Request: fold
Amino acid sequence: MTPTPFFRVLAAAALLAWGCARAFTLEEFQFQSPAQEHEFRELIGKLRCLVCQNESLAASQADLAQDLREEVYHMMQDGKSQDEIIEFLVARYGDFVLYQPPVKPSTYILWFGPFVLIGIGGFFLLRALQRKGREPEADLSATDRDRIEQLLTQPGTRPGDTQDRTS
Amino acid sequence: MARSKSSYLLPLGIFLALAALLFYGLTIDPKKVPSPLIGKPAPSFELESLLEPGKTISSDILKGQISLVNVWASWCPSCRQEHAELVRIARESDVQMIGFNWKDERPAALEMLRRYGNPYTLSVFDPENRVGIDWGVYGAPETFVVDAEGIIRHKQIGPIDQRVWDE
Reply:
């Protein structure tokens, strides 16, 4: 099956976009070794672009992102460690520059909150289910019981009777 | 069926508390990144003057009086909007206004000052975002309030208008 023109255009666009994105980070920077390049890619994946705030520094095309990538690159070339670079940026931009929020007391609600809420909900659910099982059928009152007996034993009230019986 | 009032009041209470929290969250602007520099000394810098090329201005100018460091650029429409307000503030109060021209080109910046007025006592020029990163600048306009000892007291993200100034 030959690809329809639509798919050809789509494939070409995808390749072009992918090529542009790669060129943006890769060809701009020269690395001393593949290991260093890998470390760089990893690091910028951990940092957030502050302009396009849902994207990492690796993905964002914003101007500021390029500035920060350059800064990270130069710091790496200067021999700074990943932790030092991260500390540098957090000191200037705050925790938000980390793509994944750190686990510290101020973010405990963020990390553990959903589990706590599920736990609370689960607790109430269990309690409701247990109660339903334990509760006995509501007792009939004495007058109700008499009435039922009367209705059941009276001749002529049994289903199917269409004529009076001669007793 | 629940017998006691508390077993449905409690989940309702939890839900209402959660709803109140989320409702409050709707009023916060998630794009505003709080600055970790508040309460810390302003990062020192030495930048070229915008108006007089070749002349260097250092961050010592921030000592001795209250300053507003206004980050702006000619390509930023909100900066143009707040410019009139800045001119008014410069005229009516005795804070020192420092213009921080960010990621801009000198001719365009000078043209904007010529056209809309120059509220700044001094203007510095940071076209490559060298110092901007130190101050945690991630967009324009931003304004920092620096006290007489050079400590950053407040960071205003976004343009200043009458309402913001009164606050």
